[in-house]
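Recap from last week: sequence in, structure out.
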Amino acid sequence: MKFWSILFALITWAPALVADDTIPVFGDDNYPPVIWADKGEPRGELPRILKLLEPAMGVRFRLELSPWRRAYESAAAGRGGLIGVSLTSERQKLFDFSDPVYGDNINIVVLRGKEFSYHELGDLKGKRLGGQLGASYGEVFDHALQQGEVAVERDTSQVQRLRKLLAGRLDAALIGNGQAGIDATIAADPELQRNRDRFVALDRPLTVDQLYLAFPKSMGATAMLQQFNAALRTIRPLAKR
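Predicted structure tokens:
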């Protein structure tokens, strides 16, 4: 992929760039191990993948991490892209999406001894579920939520969610990125570490959530996203590491 063809594509949406061809991208500051801020520095799988893409694209991604709702609103306002976002029909009205960047299992975590059978959304009816503020857990789940078939108490971090589960304020916590996400969340908090053996994920995840890079349609980033997808295909074996 030649630098000048990429640069030409980027020029078509110049308001999104600074003078040195840096692309601003917003993301969650507290979703380890997928993406989080460590003393202000982006860490995790998504920042690693973006860094791998920079040489192929001839650009630099400037990651700005904050609580998820703020990151989402910053991107929706046209100030940059959004990394780690799920695709829904409602969001497709506002954003242009890349190809999938990362697959994220959303597990249902409960306290040991309080497991229950989960095969369909109806099994969650009446359960006190904890989830991320502003997050989508798939269109089927979101529809059930709108219809009042399930209920979710929202918060801003997975640590906060597991602490509420431990205190008996939730029946189950929705935790992203499979067992790695559970382990990283527990490792981030001393109280959770002391009680790590009390947490268990149900056998079946709530969903396997594909995460994307998206830009608001107002930024006209379609050409850049095509270049992004082409570069993503070239590093895909490394991205899955």
